[in-house]
Design a protein that fits this description.
This protein is of the alpha/beta class. The protein is built from 14 helices and 12 strands. The chain has helices at about 15-25, 50-60, 85-95, 120-150, 155-175, 185-195, 220-230, 240-245, 250-260, 265-280, 305-310, 310-315, 325-330, 335-340, and strands at about 5-10, 40-45, 60-65, 65-70, 100-105, 200-205, 235-240, 280-285, 290-300, 320-325, 345, 355-365. Strands 2-4-1-5-6-7 form a 6-stranded mixed β-sheet, with helices on both faces. A 3-stranded mixed β-sheet has the order 3-9-8, sandwiched between helices. Strand 8 (about 280-285) and strand 9 (about 290-300) form a beta hairpin. The model is unreliable at about 25-35 and about 85 (pLDDT under 50).
């Protein structure tokens, strides 16, 4: 199953508008809560200028970017962990995604109602965080009761579980996310088994009006930045309504529009790349006359497993990989020149593939 980033937030903060702009999928957008009941899923291409630069070297017949998925999840409200606003169903949708993109409203507009009657991004963040923490607390307490009973067997694993779960229970009881609890690699393995909502990595999206794009020090955005820094989370500032308009333009008009706004790139391009990194993903390339293509791997992936992304036979019969760094290839100007300059390397099974590697795999089955 492809990795997914779930777009969450309070009702009417711009989630579906942002999702529409990202995917051009036409998800229903309306000015009332719970418009999005069933989650919408959209596949997006990851913007990467390196693809075109590689294509300029090898002149392929086609260029294929890598992709991943965004999921538009309905707005959560206070009491969601107890079923308010169909909360249990929506929390289940969040549980199924790999990372959370939390859209926070940072603009005033009397024509767009807020479920709480006023705009306060920190209150909105805390409302959702508390609901996720309460849902996780229920899961942790159930597991903790079971682990305490199992401790009687003398198995040291359960003693470790009880210690970890007790720490998680204390954190969640204070409304703090599980991802902020410091754990060893062994403890992280137990945490992953729990599939906790608040253990998922988070990226905050401060949704501003058009004026807010050039005033990122505005008070509402500044509060989100401060909160994210305390949680070691990232922040992207976008104007969802403007991005929806940009998404309807062709590439030429899009560049002109962004230039007129004084922007080097769209907020969506920044968001897509940030969500890609949030998921712990990296990109390597294959390049030849048939195609220049980007392939998605996890950070830390070894060469045979990276080859398996292309085809299982590549992994099963892996011999070695020919590797040249993207920057080395561009600086020398061609594969031939890169080889002559000694920039190509032969790597074996233990090689950890780096973001931007251009690779050719040797295999035999």
């Amino acid at each position: 199953m492809p990795l997914q980033a779930g777009i969450v937030g309070m009702p009417n903060v711009g989630k579906s508008t942002l999702f529409n702009a990202i995917t051009k999928a036409g998800a229903e957008v309306a000015n009332y809560p719970f418009c999005t009941i069933n989650p919408n899923v959209g596949v997006v291409e990851v913007p990467d200028s390196r693809l075109q630069e590689l294509a300029n070297l090898v002149h392929p017949r086609r260029i294929i970017p890598t992709t991943f998925e965004f999921v538009d999840i309905a707005g959560l409200v206070a009491g969601a962990s107890k079923g308010e606003g169909l909360g249990n169903k929506f929390l289940g949708h969040i549980r199924e995604v790999d990372a959370i993109v939390h859209v926070v409203r940072c603009f005033e507009n009397g024509d767009v109602t807020h479920v709480n009657g006023s705009v306060d991004p920190i209150r909105d963040i805390e409302t959702i965080q508390v609901e996720l923490a309460l849902a996780d607390l229920d899961s942790v307490e159930k597991r903790l009761d079971k682990s305490r009973r199992n401790m009687k067997s003398g198995d040291k694993r359960y003693a470790l579980e009880v210690a970890i779960l007790t720490r998680l229970e204390q954190s969640l009881s204070q409304g703090l996310p599980a991802r902020m609890v410091s754990l060893t690699d062994e403890e992280q393995a137990i945490l992953r088994e729990l599939s906790l909502l608040t253990a998922k990595p988070v990226l905050y999206v401060a949704n501003v009006d058009e004026q807010g794009l050039t005033h990122t020090d505005a008070p509402l955005v500044a509060r989100v930045l401060e909160r994210a820094q305390a949680e070691n989370a990232g922040v992207i500032v976008v104007c969802a309504q403007l991005e929806a308009e940009i998404a309807e333009l062709d590439e030429t008009d899009k560049r002109v529009f962004l230039t007129d706004l004084g922007l080097a790139e769209s907020g969506l391009d920044k968001l897509i790349r940030a969500a890609y990194r949030l998921l712990g993903l990296r990109t390597y390339f294959t390049a030849g006359e048939p195609e220049v293509r980007a392939w998605t791997i996890h950070a830390g992936t070894k060469a045979p497993q990276a080859a398996g992304v292309i085809h299982s036979d590549f992994e099963r019969g892996f011999i070695r990989a020919e590797v040249v760094g993207y920057k080395d290839l561009l600086s020398t100007g061609s594969f031939t020149a890169a080889r002559e300059a000694g920039r190509f390397r032969l790597e074996g099974k233990d090689y950890e593939v780096q973001d931007g590697d251009v690779m050719h795999f040797r295999f035999n089955v």
